[in-house]
Write a structure and sequence with these properties.
By secondary structure, the chain is of the alpha/beta class. The chain is built from nine helices and 13 strands.
């Protein structure tokens, strides 16, 4: 049987390297590599893209857009890990668990945009609440998030791991202070909100892992749900999903200690969702690997779905 040809445009970046790592045990794929000195040569990249069955784009937005323009082979399918196409109407949004329509769009599409890491955690919580009319589209949402420094890129990783790093890097650092974070457009569009949430992300002194948290005032919701009502709706929405797991209701002893660490799912493609708080102030948190379900794992999962094979191949489910 002929193997599926894969090209990763932007292999030297964190996401590209993690995708390649997830392919190391796959005997159904052939990975084609560009000569290092030609990786920025448009004609050579075009050749590699058009000779592939699937091309992954692990590039800055402008370069990703250029790569799509270089693709002239109607049979080549593209999976883009950049921000460039996440709100584009002609591209499938690569979070299959959100709804069966997302899964089918990925399965049938030749163009798939991998969600942003923060957006994955936010949409996993908010999309089902809006869909099932628990949360109004105009609710004044605030989202808080923490992430390991691996998502900040090669230069930031080098700063965090330098022996002479400044003291401030040992502390969580709040950023996106102007409320213009690049994930906000997809957070609004995919969850069908009228406005973007207030979003407060922190980069922290650990390598990989992420939590995204959203709080709700029950008195501001149409049907005044309890925390357990919200948990039941979320649990029903994701019932039977392999990679998105709604944890038991927090009032029922799901954690040995009352803490939710951000780094416990590193190396997996799993996302956990917790519902806690009380009946007046309901809190939802998603926990996952920013390099897994938040990036390379999601990209490989989309590839598997597009290929029509088991979506878990090459991915860790626990």
């Amino acid at each position: 049987m002929e193997k599926t040809k894969i090209f990763i445009d932007g292999l030297e970046g964190t996401t590209g390297l993690k995708i390649l790592e997830r392919f190391k045990e796959r005997d159904d794929l052939t990975i084609t590599l560009i000569d290092e000195e030609k990786r920025k040569d448009a004609s050579e990249r075009a050749k590699m893209i058009n000779n592939s069955d699937y091309t992954f784009l692990c590039l800055p937005d402008a370069a990703a857009i250029e790569s799509v323009e270089l693709c002239t082979n109607p049979h080549t399918k593209i999976i883009d890990a950049s921000t460039a196409h996440r709100t584009h109407l002609e591209w499938a949004y690569g979070f299959p668990e959100l709804d069966n329509t997302f899964y089918e769009h990925i399965r049938s599409s030749k163009r798939v945009a991998v969600p942003g890491c923060y957006a994955s955690g936010f949409n996993a919580i908010v999309y089902p609440l809006v869909k099932h009319a628990i949360l109004p589209r105009n609710y004044p949402l605030v989202a808080h998030a923490v992430s390991g420094y691996s998502g900040a890129g090669k230069k930031a990783i080098a700063k965090y791991e330098a022996s002479d790093r400044p003291t401030e890097l040992q502390s969580p650092r709040l950023y996106a202070l102007t409320q213009m974070h690049k994930h906000l457009p997809e957070m609004k569009k995919i969850s069908n909100l009228e406005t973007e949430p207030i979003f407060t992300p922190y980069i922290c002194d650990f390598f990989q892992g992420m939590t995204v948290t959203v709080g709700l005032h029950s008195r501001l919701l149409p049907h005044k749900p309890t925390a357990k009502d919200v948990w039941q709706e979320i649990a029903k929405h994701y019932e039977g999903k392999t990679f998105v797991k709604v944890m038991p209701f927090m009032g029922e002893g799901v954690l040995e200690e009352p803490f939710i660490a951000a780094n416990t799912l590193a190396g997996t493609n799993v996302m956990q969702i917790f519902v806690y708080g009380n009946d007046e102030r309901i809190i939802l948190t998603s926990r996952f690997d920013n390099l897994g379900k938040g990036a390379s794992g999601a990209a490989v999962q989309c590839l598997n779905i597009m290929m029509g094979i088991d979506e878990t191949i090459g991915l860790t489910t626990v």
